[in-house]
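Hey, I'm writing a tutorial for new members on how sequence and structure tokens pair up, and I'd like a real worked example in the thread rather than a made-up one. If someone can provide the structure for the chain below, I'll link this post from the tutorial.
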Amino acid sequence: MSAAYATFGLAPAMRAGGVRADGGYQLHRDFTDFVVDGRPLLFQLADLDAVSPLASDVPPAIFTAQVRSLLLESAAPLPGNRYVVYGCPECEDLACGAVTAVIEHDGDDYVWREFAWQTGEHADLELNGYHGLGPFRFRGPEYRAALGALLAESGPPPGRRVLLIGARVALLAKLAAALRAIGIGADITRDADGVPAEELRGYGAVAFGPAAGEAERTAVRQAFERAGVDVAYVDGLAPIVPLLVAQIEHTLERSPLPQRRLARLVAADGTAGIEVTSPCRVRVTAYRLDRLSRPRAHELFDGVLEPGRHRIPLDGKAAKGPSYVVARTSGSVLVRATVR
């Protein structure tokens, strides 16, 4: 078997959760993605909403078993030396569909080939194969070093938690419930004084509600600084739960900037400007408060965009008064206030 060498790496990624306009939820998943020749492998699979087996919310023993499986230290889970590369983000059922590939040794090299979409025990390459993808030949030392580093870290990274700060308890309670529903831990407090440093290290972000005062914000920042904890801060744009969830999802994204599908969002002069780096489904939603301070959502666009820059019109109702635009793909979320 001959094939040019490809580079193999790993990078943090997420399947973005969120609150849909119809009130439903989409689960948040943190996982480690495969990076082939400097580009996430997931991006080469068109608009696929999936996660790798290396997810942060699986038990450490299962995570370790997945890594050792990819190192070919255990038998393949599917016939024909096939391994699951990406699976359903909501469950682990193969019936939902998964991307599988043959993974095998060739001397000291590792080879990934015959990628296919699989929903049963056997893959139909003619009908469901990803023709033109791979094979990928990885140098053994590079491949083993990347996956071995995950084992050295003693399992998956900890799950994400968010600390919510503010005076509007009812709003924060709804926000916390929404975050927990999509798989993000959330706690509510007025300040962080007296909280042990090891507890503060469990938070990936601090979200200030729109009613949080400057004194409260300063005190919380100082508490994290004293504990030596580097945490991201989110300043709530408006008391709209889906909008605040989107802001937090944006802040929690860990993937390197060059490896994000959603690269840019601006909202000005009646238009949302969007830039994507690979073909993907993009949903654009505008949020605002009406005259009675009730949240309103307007779906502006939902479709597949090709790489490049695109302009989505903001209709008059969506941009009436102070409004905000959320653009999301399966793995990225961007939020912007509209500028007139």
